[in-house]
Amino acid sequence: MDKVYDTIIIGGGPAGYTAALYSARAGYDTLVAEKLSSGGQMALTGIIDNYPGFEEGVDGFTLGMKMQQSAERFGARTKYTEILSADLTASPKRLVTTDGELYAKNVIIAAGAYPRNLGLEGESDYIGRGIHYCAHCDGRFYKDKEVAVIGGGNSAVTDALYLSRLAKKVYLVHRRNELRAEKIYSDALLKADNVEFLWNSEAESFDTNEQGRISSLRIKDTKGETLRDITLDGIFISIGRKPATDFLRDSGIALDKHGYIIAGEDTRTNIRGVFAVGDIRTKRLRQVVTAVADGAAAVHEIGEEL
Ligand code: NAP
Asked: What pLDDT is attached to residue 306?
């Protein structure tokens, strides 16, 4: 058998690299297994100004790099590889990767969650230039502008509410004729006087201007017939998120009905020595500050075990 790490952390976002910092600093032999590059979803965010310590805000990519460097300063290492499956009840725990197997006494799962794409043509090319997935992150760029929010659940409605306080006008585009969101949020949104509801409607395509930004959205009805073009500045897609738990099928780890790993503030899962941190675990507020708190909590729990 290859080397057995004290701690392997799956995912190099803010939760993962905070866990790595605490783990390496506590003297544990620590490895971060990251699929792509540090920062996770945070790295896709332009300016983050709700993470304390940066009076001018900080771009997500830079913050991700800084978090990686902080952990590596204490000896944590990063291996760029994808975890394909995990045997978490074995001793030591075994991770099957695209580059062979890894073994650890403790596994901290920090693989995150991803916003669902709508699948519009060119959608991924305009992320950050009019296409957004997080109103609380990017809404402030749309002060006194016109935006659309796609979706009808709690995320879409709370995003639309937030944007209605900043933007001049908000279109809520929903494929049903009623909201799925909880009444407390729906009632507040229905009362907002700068929100127009487009029921039984879906986004069909968007157009862009000479600056390479979104300029309009074409709306179709649910039977596919084009209804109208809306002139606007931004589109917020809020149709749910997907936790990155595919590699955990057959691992025995307990997930909730949305696919998030069931874990409380102590980040302990149903399997001893396995912890879930950041956006991948069941929690109410998914932010960088709550993710980094989880990373610290997980390593504290590992210390308690020892
Ligand atoms: P959600 O509840 O699954 O709602 C997704 C919404 O997007 C639904 O209205 C759905 O339409 C629509 N949708 C899905 N795919 C679509 C597509 N391809 N095209 C157009 N519309 C599409 O997701 P969520 O709102 O992100 O919420 C996820 C979880 O987080 C929920 O449990 C929610 O309660 C929770 N949450 C809580 C709060 C809070 O309490 N403050 C805030 C945000 C989220 P249909 O209705 O037709 O299916």
From this structure: 74
Pocket of ligand 1, candidates 180, 183, 202: which has the most ligand atoms within 8 Å of its Cβ, to mutate?
180
pLDDT score, position 29 = 98
Give me the mean pLDDT over the 72-81 stretch.
98
Tokens of 197: 């509801």
Short-list 285, 282, 284, 254, CA closest to 269: 254
pTM more than 0.90: no
At 21-51, the pLDDT tens digits run 999 999 999 999 999 888 888 887 767 888 9
User: Ligand 1 centroid to 166 CA: how many Å?
Assistant: 22
Q: Residue 158 phi/psi, 5° resolution? A: -70, -35
**Does the annotation mark 294 as catalytic?**
no
Is 193 considered catalytic here?
Answer: no
Binding site membership of 63 for ligand 1 (Cβ less than 6 Å): no
CA of 287 to the centre of ligand 1 (A): 18
- Respond yes or no: is residue 134 known to be catalytic: yes
DSSP for residue 247: G
Tens of pLDDT, residue by residue over 1-10, are 689 999 999 9
Residue type, 230: I
Q: Tokens 């997907």 sit at which residue?
A: 242
